[in-house]
């Protein structure tokens, strides 16, 4: 009742999540009112994330609480719902009747909270330019700026060890693959690439439909070209399951039994050779093969080998699904006929649970699994930011994303020829679906043709982009948002009448690495992004024209581009640093960030 009379926002009694958000919002408004009443010396800035935390914004405005507010949306409710359906979302944004569309989906009250929060805040921001464009049309307010999501790069940092960590994790994935494909493990694991996609089970939004279709085309392309490489594609998305399949458990048990038997025979043979060597005298024969393995050893080994026979194809899913016949991912895999046939160059494994080291089939945590793969594929149609490809980047794993994801847009603007750095961006904005699928399949095929040395070089380049995603850099945008909010709330405390372009700073472009043959000559005046303190230096008037990247000796390969980087500063109109009141900053988070 009070929320309706105050802000015109309905609150249906049967939506428990919304009602909890409303209670939380009233408590926040009450707290801010009390805090501001006692805080006489400092300006207070409160930042709210997502609609769940946004109820307090219209309340603070209506009650005239002396607090400066920022609202940041990480996605729009209506956008997520519309994209999940078969809608040409981005080409029809300006034509949607938002109230009607929200009403049809039963989220009108939530949409009202989100829109009310956006209009009540002093500063409205989003996490990416693609979400800013979406918010302008769906929430009817143009965002004041973009606050990209960052990562705690130090958590993932492995410096010189990340290649070793990749090798260790890959060996664990190899163990799973041996068990899953037992009896038909006729492909060379040294010539096998592991690709994966992961995230919430949003079949269309996360681009799983495009990923599976492109895998089918990749399979055809590799078979036509006579490639000796094999691709194992993992889909890691939680769905409703009953249990692990008997076949998945049996595969791991069979391989473990074979491994234990071989290890036991190996130890016995080692002992025999050692004992014979101790008693050996000149003129005696060395032990023959037939003397090393006993009849019992041969019988035991033969039993294990017969146990590895299978009459069916390796399964495409590791769990028993609750609704197998109607699962969109399984149905598309069947439609594309990716059944893990021995002649297929592309194998597929759907793991409908998040990864855990306690899993009896694939005992790995997500971070370890990512390190062990060769490439992440995230062909999202709706992805306001995209932490999964960002995490791949900081762990040195090349990834494929799209220009409809916030991360893809950010890297595309920041880096020229991003694929030279292991960031492949599929055009889903201007191309048709078929062309986008072909582009994705071609990216994956080109990756399979790289030599091991080229892949190592690319991983080195990818890992060195970590600094571009660090909160040390991204956090500066939050500082600027708070300054803009303070300027709007207390204009008399700032010099000048016009707001400076806080979000129109220097655009840094990482250029394409130049081709250069390997050479033992010393190089000087070189640096990596990790040595470059911050992109913010460009905003402070520092010239970056002479910053050149450093190329490690082990990267030198005549057939491969050396690691870049030339950072170019494209300067815009200068901004003045205002004299601001002392800030007390609060953060209200509605989505767990």
Automatic annotation (TrEMBL):
Transfers the glycosyl residue from UDP-Glc to the non-reducing end of alpha-1,4-glucan. Belongs to the glycosyltransferase 3 family. GO terms for biological process: glycogen biosynthetic process. PANTHER family: GLYCOGEN [STARCH] SYNTHASE, GLYCOGEN SYNTHASE. It holds the Pfam family Glycogen_syn. One of its GO terms (molecular function) is alpha-1,4-glucan glucosyltransferase (UDP-glucose donor) activity. It is an enzyme of class 2 (transferase). Keywords: Glycogen biosynthesis, Glycosyltransferase, Transferase. This is Glycogen [starch] synthase. Gene3D superfamilies: 6.10.260.10, Glycogen Phosphorylase B. Its EC number is 2.4.1.11. The keyword Cell membrane does not apply. Residues 572-582 have a biased composition (Low complexity). GO terms for cellular component: cytoplasm. Residues 497-528, 553-593 are annotated as: Disordered. Pathway: Glycan biosynthesis; glycogen biosynthesis. InterPro entries: Glycogen_synth. The keyword Protease does not apply. It catalyses: [(1->4)-alpha-D-glucosyl](n) + UDP-alpha-D-glucose = [(1->4)-alpha-D-glucosyl](n+1) + UDP + H(+).
